[in-house]
Design a protein that fits this description.
The chain is mainly beta and 736 residues long. The protein folds into two domains: 16-210, Immunoglobulin-like, CATH 2.60.40.1120; 211-318 and 332-734, TonB-dependent receptor, beta-barrel domain (Maltoporin, Chain A), CATH 2.40.170. It contains five helices and 39 strands. The chain has a 22-stranded antiparallel β-barrel. The two termini are 45 Å apart. The model is unreliable at 1-18 (pLDDT under 50).
């Protein structure tokens, strides 16, 4: 299949079209030209800035539809779509002053609409905004988004939870391809670093129509760092220091672009000691080290655009098993530990065919996971190699009607080399086809689609029948049809309603199908079930939001019915001194939502107040509660913005109060968790020292050193609290 897609891409990329040029003038509402406006064409990875006369220009553009984004601090964001670009076309753009970020282009959905035109409500956050909250890891930042939380093991390991669903039910995309890194495992996290990432989009709900199996609960879609503007060269350095873990994070990036070619490279290193709880003790072996390297090269002209990216991520993680024992500030991990090497190679290519286009993503991931018990010899050594492709053909737009046909596939092999097997040697093959359409009239949009998928799983027999660690051979095929339908309308000026109904599915993973042994860290004997069926869900979502330049309000509600929900259940037996658990299925239901507001009163332009509340309830068919469901959460933030003379610009100060409520709705083998409140402070801005501008951040998280245990902490069973007060100082600047 790979050979045919490459031949198709190379053949189509030879098609030539007439070269197009686009120019324009950007001004404010008083017709005064605006300089320094960032103008960006995301699909071509092309950017520039307006000159002192407000002028900009692009050359070597395709003739098809283009979406331009205009950004300037104090003027929000302006998005313009051009249909059938004519040669030497000229634009006049007027930007109005606002301190609100009014609209974002959402690329994780099918048609890359701006948020106000999108049928599905998608949460969008820049990595910069998450970093300003002072979190030490990417997953900690994601957990501040309403509807998102994390299952954590200390500060180094975190797995995303979207509206109560986690593990293989949440897909992670980076560089345009799905991340495959043994994500079913409890003892490792995302395997992604926020260095070299521009923003994240969160789809909260089934997204199987676009993404296939495992998108039953939602999708985290990471947008990579942009290339430099045309004919520029930039070098950037950043440093962060963490008081609690005596940690540091260092990042250096270089990037350059010509009119057609683009290059970037970025390296990042993080190191942390064991984290400190409020009484001053350190939690033994929660230390970790992370190395991350990203690079990319892109080329675009009037007929096609192509970007090749590579990401290497290396994690050295301590696994806390002793709780609070020997106290150390060492950053060298002790045993037991885990080493993860992840290579991600991606190629995104768009071929323009008049008023239509072909968008192809190819990805290759090599993931190696090793666990060490008491020596440098790995007791567990798993190699997961994955090739995947995603091809979408955008048909010519007919009036306000748009449509896409696509196909996706994945070929995956898992190979064991260590003494122990966690899952057997296996091969997995996916193939799916889909179609989706979008129709817009006035302020109304309707969007729907259909999809078919097949997943084939074949495992090898290993061990002796009846013994611990025996894996029976499995040869299973899983099929699923899925559909989605959404409607968006403006109920009144600035008042939007969205209603979506969608189905999703997830084929059981290898651990659920084939486990037979003690899983370290969980301290339980787990038995798989080779007869498990697909999980299949139907979720309905209702979103109502109001937004103007001074006030934003939203309500999101959902109801999610999951057929054949897979979960682990105690049998009451013991084996080798460990409780025996088995994987079983039952229908389940999850419901809840998020509500929030953002108030920016006039004329107090420097003041912002934000509040949000999130809740989810999850039950089995017999009304028993499901495990690993986050507690209700209420978050409040006051933010002020200011400027001090000419030496501090874009200054901000924040105080936030986060209240997590009691979680008493627990499954049979969980315990209830008491609620708690945390206070965080933040201060930052842009310092001018001569011609160099430094962006600085100073955060104090858990300011009052509150002792608490999060319900989704995997150290909860040992009574180990979460991290105490953590002061984070960071700065970054452009070297040139």
């Amino acid at each position: 299949m790979k050979k045919y897609i490459l031949v198709l891409f190379l053949g189509l990329s030879t098609l030539l079209q007439a070269q197009q040029r686009l120019s324009g003038i950007v001004s404010n509402s008083q017709k005064q030209p605006l300089s320094g406006v960032s103008v960006y064409i995301a699909e071509l990875h092309k950017g520039t800035k307006t000159n002192e006369n407000g002028a900009f220009s692009f050359s070597n553009l395709p003739k098809g539809n283009l979406k331009l984004r205009f950004v300037l601090v104090g003027f929000g964001t302006q998005n313009i779509e051009i249909n059938s670009l004519d040669n030497n076309e000229s634009l006049t753009v007027v930007m109005n002053e606002t301190l609100f970020e009014m609209d974002e282009v959402i690329v994780s959905t099918a048609f890359s609409k701006i948020q106000s035109q999108n049928v599905m409500k998608v949460s969008h956050e820049t990595i910069q905004s998450l970093q300003e909250k002072g979190t030490s890891t990417l997953i900690e930042g994601l957990a501040t988004i309403p509807g998102v939380s994390q299952v954590s093991t200390g500060t180094s390991i975190g797995k995303p939870v979207i509206r109560g669903l986690s593990g293989n039910r949440v897909l992670v995309y980076s560089q345009g391809v799905r991340i495959e890194n043994q994500q079913f495992g409890d003892e490792h996290g995302l395997g992604l670093n926020d260095s070299g990432v521009e923003s994240v989009e969160v789809i909260k709900g089934p997204a199987s129509l676009l993404y296939g199996s495992d998108a039953l609960g939602g999708v985290l879609y990471f947008n990579p760092e942009k290339f430099a503007d045309a004919n520029t060269f930039k070098a950037n350095f950043s440093q962060k220091l963490f008081s609690n873990t005596l940690g540091s994070n260092t990042s250096l990036g270089l990037k350059s672009s010509t009119e057609n070619w683009k290059y970037l490279v970025r390296g990042d290193f993080s190191t942390h000691s064991d984290y400190t709880i409020p009484d001053g003790d350190r939690v033994t072996n929660t230390r970790y080290n992370e190395t991350d390297f990203k690079t990319g090269v892109g080329y675009s002209n009037h007929s096609f655009s192509s970007v090749l990216r590579y990401n290497y991520n290396k994690l050295d993680l301590g696994i806390p098993e002793e709780g609070i024992e020997a106290q150390s500030t060492s950053k060298s991990t002790d045993f037991p530990s885990q080493g993860i090497d992840n290579h991600l190679l991606s190629l995104n290519s768009v071929v323009y065919l008049g008023n239509s286009k072909l968008d192809v993503d190819l990805g290759y991931i090599a993931n190696n996971r090793k666990e060490f018990e008491d020596s440098p010899e790995a007791i567990l050594d798993m190699q997961l190699n994955t090739f995947n492709f995603n091809a979408k053909y955008h048909l010519p737009k007919i009036g306000s009607f748009e449509s896409i046909f696509g196909m996706q596939g994945m070929r995956q092999t898992n190979t064991n080399s260590g003494e122990e097997y966690l899952i057997p040697n296996a091969k997995t093959n996916d193939f799916g086809v889909f179609g989706t359409a979008n129709y817009q009239w006035n302020s109304n949009v309707i969007q729907g689609g259909l999809r078919y998928d097949n997943r084939k799983v074949v495992t090898e027999e290993y061990g002796d029948f009846g013994d611990e660690g025996y894996f029976q051979p499995i040869d299973r095929s899983f099929d699923s049809f899925n559909a989605s339908l959404g409607y968006k309308t403006n109920l009144a000026t600035d008042l939007i309603m969205r209603l979506n109904v969608a189905s999703g599915f997830r084929a059981p993973n290898l651990a659920e199908l084939s486990s037979n042994g003690v899983h370290e860290g969980t301290l339980r004997y787990e038995i798989g079930n080779a007869n498990l069926k697909n999980e299949q869900n139907i979720q309905s979502d209702l979103n109502i939001e109001y937004k103007n330049s001074h006030f934003e309000f939203f309500v999101n509600g959902f109801y999610n019915h999951v057929s054949n929900y897979i979960y682990i259940n105690p049998t009451g037996a013991t084996l080798d001194g460990n409780l025996v658990f088995e994987y079983i299925q039952n229908d389940a239901k999850l419901f809840g939502g998020e509500v929030g507001l953002h108030f920016h009163p006039h004329p107090l332009d420097w003041l912002h107040f934000e509040t949000s509340f999130e809740t989810v309830t999850a039950k089995k068919q017999n009304n028993d509660y499901l495990p690993l469901i986050p507690a209700n959460n209420w978050n409040n933030t006051i933010r002020t913005e200011f400027q001090i003379s000419n030496w501090l610009k874009d200054g901000f100060a924040t105080v936030s109060w986060n209240a997590t409520f009691d979680q008493k709705n627990v499954s049979g083998f969980e315990t209830a968790t008491a609620g708690y409140s945390l206070v965080n402070l933040g201060l930052g801005g842009k310092l001018a020292l001569g011609k160099t501008h430094f962006k600085v951040n100073l955060n104090a998280n858990n300011l009052f050193n509150k002792t608490y245990i999060a319900h989704l902490s995997r150290l909860k069973t040992d009574g180990i609290p979460n991290i105490g007060r953590n002061v984070v100082f960071g700065f970054n600047f452009d070297i040139f």
